Amino acid sequence: MALTPKQSLFVREYLVDLNATQAAIRAGYSQKTAGSQAHDLLKKPEIQESIAHGATDRAKSVEITTEYVLSTIRNTIERCAQAEPVFDREGVETGEYKFDSTAVLKGSELLGKYLKLFTDKTEISNPDGTMKPSAPIYNIVNK
What we know:
Helix 5 (about 65-80) packs antiparallel against helix 6. The relative contact order is 0.07. This protein has a two-stranded antiparallel sheet with strand order 1-2. The longest helix has 17 residues, at about 45-60. The protein contains six helices and two strands; from the N terminus they run H-H-H-H-H-E-E-H. The chain is mainly alpha-helical.
């Protein structure tokens, strides 16, 4: 199913800043209902497909690949992990070294997320501490 001109404009505007509500407003939807309109538009498979196609085209045009992103993160980690000597006020090395641990940890976190090393799990329990079943339990009786 082809997109309407307004839907096509929404997709194009959405790809600018990934803000669905603002994209809906810029595409001509009512400011009053733009949030719900955007929500509904993003649920439509043809809109999702068009957004994915547009994002892929943009990534190709600026030559951003998975390899580029991962190698940039890796290079940043390695550069930030290099120990730099600490100097006193006279410019003499103190024998101590520093490195940018925040950047190293952030880069490692990004790589870990990409490799799916970290998963967020939510455990739901009853007030008495027993675990709630994740799905209803039914007794199935064959007749």
